[in-house]
Design brief:
globular, six-stranded mixed beta sheet, disordered N terminus
């Protein structure tokens, strides 16, 4: 579900950033993602959109929170494509999100191979770059993505 969460002056340069995170619930075996899309105009005003989703896929769940991280990146890309956004920077705290997409890591299972191919296909119609951020280092949008992922699992 998406909801506009107001606007902020973060001093970002013009463009679209997506902060993604994943979560895993041991008890249910379900995983989830949280996404914060930050669209910044030429004046530096930012509007945010919050997205999250939970998944029940026992094969993907073997990857635990990594499955959620991947689904967060895919949800962000899908949102951008559906909104006509032609360029996005995806901020992630799990190295594989950028590494599989940029083919720096070998994709060894159907989840990571599918993700790698999804990004390659999306890149035919939009520019996608990946930026690694430190987890739990006080980045407000990364922290919000983490909260959204947990909320999707009822945490």
């Amino acid at each position: 579900s998406g909801a506009a969460a107001g606007s902020d002056a973060d001093g970002f340069p013009e463009g679209v950033r997506a902060y993604v995170d994943g979560s895993y619930d041991n008890a249910s075996g379900r995983f989830s993602c949280g996404v914060v899309i930050v669209e910044t105009d030429a004046e530096g005003n930012s509007e945010t959109t919050e997205l999250n989703a939970a998944f029940d896929d026992s094969e993907a769940a073997q990857q635990r929170n990594v499955a959620g991280e991947i689904m967060g990146s895919k949800l962000a890309i899908d949102h951008c494509m559906a909104s006509g956004i032609r360029s996005v920077e995806i901020y992630h705290d799990y190295e594989g999100i950028g590494a599989w997409a940029d083919r720096r890591w070998k994709a060894n299972n159907s989840l990571t191979q599918g993700y790698r191919d999804f990004v390659a296909e999306a890149r035919k119609s939009m520019e996608i770059t990946f930026v690694k951020v430190k987890a739990h280092a006080g980045n407000k949008y990364n922290e919000l993505a983490d909260k959204l992922a947990k909320k999707a699992l009822g945490k």
